[in-house]
Amino acid sequence: MQITYKRNGLKNYMIIRNEKDGSPGLREKMIIRNKIRHLAKMTPQSIDGKTYYYYDIQGRVNLEALFTGRCFKADELRAILKSLSEMLYELQRYMLSPDEVIFSPGAVWLSPDTLEPSFIYVPEMLPDECCSIRLLAQFFTEHVDGEDREAASMAYEYLEMVENGYIIPDVKEPQPDFCRTDETPPIDPDDYWDLKEGIADEMKPFFEDNGPDRQADRRAKTIPAVICLGTVIVAAGIYIAFVLRPDLFPVILSDEEYMIAGAGIAVAFALVLTGVIYMFGKKNDSEGNEGNEGTDLSGNDPSPAEMTYSGQNEEIYADREYSEKKDPADEKTVLLKRTGSFSPAGRYPMLKYDDGRHVIIRRFPFIMGKMKTRVDEVIEGEGISRIHAMIKEQDGFYYISDLNSLNGTGVNGKMLEANETVEISSGDIISLADTTLTFQAAAPEKPVPDNKCRQ
Predict the structure, then answer these.
(1) How far apart are CA 137 and CA 159, in angstroms?
(2) What is the DSSP code string of 40-61?
(3) 437: closest CA among 361, 367, 357, 362?
(4) Going by DSSP bridges, is the β-strand pair 366-369/377-378 parallel, antiparallel, or unpaired?
(5) Residue 402 has pLDDT above 80, yes or no
(6) Does the pLDDT at position 51 exceed 90?
(7) Is 98 within 8 Å of 120 (Cβ atoms)?
(8) Which residues 6+ apart lie within 8 Å of 357 measured at CB?
(9) C-alpha angle 242/248/249, rounded to 5°?
């Protein structure tokens, strides 16, 4: 299978020649006419009687380049496996064969931001071990983070499935662990500004009802009311017992005296009850007026209480923003500046900027671009792609690869094709869009390739 790459204006294409000449087949028409999820957009072109498939890979980086120097975390691997599962189900829906998909890690194209993959489907491609899905499953196990048990479990379970003939991943979404308490954020006293010492006097009526003075005042008003009600209830109870069992009492009253005594008790009960209701109603009114003192009901002027509430919340939010910690992965790579006593380590290769700065390459592969979370050297610039180029070492020789960048990568004035790899040596001028770097090889020792996970 012949695979080439071409940069055409603002588009980068992966080009595959159709080995079978003739008119487009059913599968080719199916791919062209339908937007199948997670398949790269394909456009056939006829050149000199031969058919070439152009796959749009603009803005994407192949899986091999992105994860050769990094390892899969659980969420990253889950996202890729989920997309793979969706793509394979779509192939079943359109009655297309998964044997015609190139699963080689170098031909699986990922979005650097979301890791959403685009797979290459070649109509009527013969089954080829170089494109087998087993290569993809093995790549997952070889580049999974061994310390991430969830990721390792997913990778090895999928490899076992593929070896047993099942290729659709069984992706399980992570379940929340309600028993874990280490993720529960501690209570921040600053969140409860109304409990702070020094609260504004205007807010005290709302938040300090249980102070010692208020408790004593409430007790002073409650005791007389309870005594009065208790006395009336006891009198009413004696009267009822006197009416029902007059033989228990030595005093005998006439019918008229019974009626007068009952009416007196009823009037006393009503008076005491009215007094208690009035007493507690007056207490609540006084507390309400005390809390709303100074409030402008027209809505034009906020009360001091409202002003205190707003101001304190603004201070809290300001403190939160100021205390937020940034992700160390988003920080720029520290660049070593040239000084009078600067002497670069000769056993490591390095890159030199035009302004004299040096970047020592201590591990391979070495990825350059402006996406801070996925590159080894952050290069700012409007023309720099998120993941722009990669330097690698093999058998003592150094190579640079363009990683499907928009504005391209050049070596000594010659522009590389998209995803092209060329050898570089000391003194070569590397151009990444409008940024120029000079490569200096290690002498005499060379660094050992580091394929471990980059944390």
Answers:
(1) 5
(2) --EEEEEETTEEEEEEE-TT-E
(3) 357
(4) parallel
(5) yes
(6) no
(7) no
(8) 335, 336, 337, 338
(9) 65
φ, ψ of residue 302 to 5 degrees: the values are -70, 150
CA 131, chain centre distance (Å): 33
Residue 391 phi/psi, 5-degree rounding, is -110, 135
- Rounded to 5 degrees, φ, ψ at 220 are -65, -30
Cα distance between residue 269 and residue 228, in whole Å: 9
Q: Return d(Cα 420, Cα 366) in angstroms, integer.
A: 16
Sign of CA dihedral 422, 427, 431, 437: positive
Report yes or no: 40 and 118 within 8 Å, Cβ to Cβ: yes
Q: What is the DSSP letter of 427?
A: T
- pLDDT of 177: 55
Least confident of 163-172, 213-222, 337-346, 438-447: 337-346
Question: Do residues 366 and 349 lie in contact, with contact meaning Cβ atoms separated by under 8 Å?
Answer: no
H or E stretch at 231: helix 212-244
pLDDT at 269 over 60: yes
**Residue 414 tokens, joined:** 């010659």
pLDDT at 344 over 60: no
More confident residue, 367 or 267: 367
Instruction: Report the helix count and the strand count for the chain, using DSSP H and E.
Output: 9, 20
| Mean pLDDT for all residues in the chain | 76
Amino acid at 50: K
Q: How high is the pLDDT of residue 188?
A: 56
Q: pLDDT value at position 305? A: 40
pLDDT of residue 293: 45
CA distance readout (Å), 255 to 243, 246, 267: 10, 12, 19
Per-residue pLDDT at 13: 93
pLDDT at 2: 83
Of 323-332, 406-415, 417-426, least confident by mean pLDDT is: 323-332
Characterise 210 by phi-psi region: left (phi > 0), alpha (psi -120 to 50), beta (else). Answer: alpha
Residue 378, CA distances (Å) to 227, 369, 412, 415 in order: 82, 5, 22, 21
- 177 in helix, strand or coil? coil
Q: Are strands 120-121 and 101-102 parallel, antiparallel or unpaired?
A: antiparallel
- pLDDT for 410 equals 95
What would the mean pLDDT of 11-34 be, rounded to a whole number?
Answer: 82
Which H or E run includes 438?
strand 435-440
Say whether 220 sits in a helix, a strand or coil.
helix
